[in-house]
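Dear support,

We are seeing what looks like truncated structure output for some complexes. This example has two components. We would appreciate it if you could run it in full and send us the complete token output so we can diff it against ours.
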Amino acid sequence: MTLPTGPSPSTSGVMTAWAQLVSQIFAVWREAGLTWKPRVRWFPRIPVHLDIVFGWLFDPAEGDDVDAILFSDERSSSPLHDIRDFVGGLQLPMIDIKGRAGEFADAAFDIMQPHSWSETARRIVGFRQQREKLAPQYRHTGEPDLQILAHMYVSGRPLRGMRYPLTPEAVCYPGFFSAARVVPIAEGLVLRGFLKKTFLDRLHECRTCRSRRLSAREECPSCRSADLRETALIHHFHCAALLPEELFRHGTALVCPKCKRQLRNYGKDYDRPGHAHVCNTCDTTSSEPEVGFVCLDCSARMDGDAADRVDLYSYSLTDAARAFLEGHAAVLAANLPVSLQREVARLNATAGARAAIAEIRFAGKDALIAANGRPAFQKSRDLLVENLRNRLAGVGSLHVAEDVAYILIESFEPHAEAWLHSLLARSEHLLRYKLDARLAIAQLLGRAQP
Amino acid sequence: MTALELGFSFLLSQTTLSIVMVFWYTLIFEFPRYILPFLVVGHLMRSPDEQVPPAEAEPSTCPSVSIILVGHNEEQALEACVRSLHEQSLREFEIVIASDGSTDRMRGVARDLVRRGLATRVLSTDLRGGKSSGINLACAFVTGDIIINVDCDCSFDRYAIERLVEPFADPRVGAVCGDIAPRNSGASVIAQFQEIEYLQSISVGKRIAGAVNQVVCASGAFSAFRRRALDDIGGFDVGGGEDLDTTIRLRLKGWRIVFAPEAICYTDVPVTLYQYVRQRLRWERDAIWIRFRKHARLMNPLSPAFRLTEAIHEWDFAVFNVAAAFVFPVYLVWLFVQYGSFALAILVGMQIGLMIIDTLILAASTWCTGRRVFLRNLLFLPGYSLFMTYVMRLVRLSAYIDEWAFSGSHRDNYTPMKVRMQRPW
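Here is the complete output from our reference environment:
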């Protein structure tokens, strides 16, 4: 479908000006490479007052054949960190037509802002071109992990964290799912070698409600009250009195409470060697107040070192992930144990097969080696493999490399992934040294019936 | 015959009166001051057996106790000291740490101790003000009726705090000082000498002093003070030797000072000759200015401040420390002038006599303290006797001259310059 030169000729009257504007937009789009009328899905809905004009610009559509999602949220203050949890369709650009989504959208379209017209067109075209490079099975996938990878690939945006005070997680990943949803998936993808993570920040987390919206404050070491007042200490050289300034102060004069002499000459009679904090609650004096936190969400109070520390990361695609998304299975196969590569080749040649490779990585490996040495890790890993092999009992085969193990399931059903997870958990439960083994379906194999 | 053999023949041929005439220095300055009291105390004031667990004190009799640790750059020693305090039989006390302008991590270590519940609070200053001001700062914010001042590099016998606090049951007692023993006596010969010295001068010497109400220095390393008594004298005053000065001022106010022999504190003593001499020069200089400049009136019978009990220890120090140090070189010269080549034999004879005295004192100390220190130190006694006679007497002499003529203590950086400039002594 090609882009028309403008709205239909029947348009007349007050709409003529709008029609001319739409024609100009089409012209700009054409220059930017958008030569067809974009098919869009509205979220949450098309605003009534825009339906005619936007009806000229975009064709409403559902299903897989969509170019973009038009975001038209009328609310002005609702948080947007989780907007993609509801909008979905990470392989498509989300175009903000209300001008408030900022980084949470992939582009902003304002009918009165000509520069936004070309930006919108470039994003739609760019997404489409990149989408076409994806292996067909990933272009419209609904799997969250694949959607994340696909969005990073088609948008060219890394999974970049941003401090965000409107949610208890205090972090969000604009353009992607909410942090609570995306981080566990991203960590799994890191283990699978599809994402590389870089440190973003370290936050403290409430032990009660897990919120990271904490207020840091200085507290009295005795009663933990934050009601502290700071007072200067005065050292009177003549009699070695070292006391808070308030004890010396008599109006504008400073008089030593110990020897009753007046302190006149700073540096000669006295100096101020430091400060003390006096608690207005329990009257304790200390020079070293403690740091504590109060949770802004549940009001729990905790000592500075009692709060859990959480590291935040940003994530970017690895070459392996790009190859995976483009359908170059060889990238995965090159790392597979020889026995598994033979099986993969056999299954790929078998019509009607529906197999899957589940990948098991050991997240606790480094900690285990650091604490108990490499032999302990190897022994635990071997025991886990043995447990798994016994429990698989012919349903699948197990193939082991140094840092990763693979389970090949030849008849992969939708419920099989949950079964594998449970199998892994039960096998690890028996181990003395836990490996924190993580399982993910790395690849589906087989080809359709001719 | 050699000159030495001739000398010994000469000595052996002397009458008792002649022997007294030859060894007058030893008979005046060594024998009466040390050997007699030690032998008496050694038999009368024996500590209970260390291996027998003592009876527990009634909880109601224990006053509230605050322990203050005041130090400058003590990051290395602080935690061990605090941990040692937590091993005490008496557990009900607060620990307040005062960092006096430390430039190392002492503040951070102290703060960490508070965070872990091992100390109660930290007070710190950015600028060093000296030990006295640090103690005064800590004393201002502790809550106990009894304030125990300990050095940060000390550790303690399990019953040390309990024994130190017990004498305060007597309301007349203003301060109690504990016994101090070297922890590192095996580190060097100098440190081993100090074990003998501490045993004589503190472990037993203060028992004797305590028996006759002559404890005049509640050591800065390990002493307890009744808060009311400290308030009575306005806390610690500036300058080095603040422990001696505070104790004398407490005595002047009528407070009793008690020595608690079973309250034992262990400390690291200097291990090299240089460190040891430097420490003693400072102690002796401080003793001179405090006793004979700041509190000189205590020796004067015409002064309104005169007290016989104070005059005794002032004169005791003046005679057996100061005069003995000044007279010793005179005695040596006199010996050589009077007896020529026989002087060497006389000195050897004197040294043998001193060694016998030291051996008796060590035996008495061992008996008195109940510690197994006799055999361990016996081999070091000859060296100890020589060292104390010919090295430390000269060190003391130089310290006295330095202080007397040049106010040497005023140069000592133990008290910061800003304080010394304001309050010269």
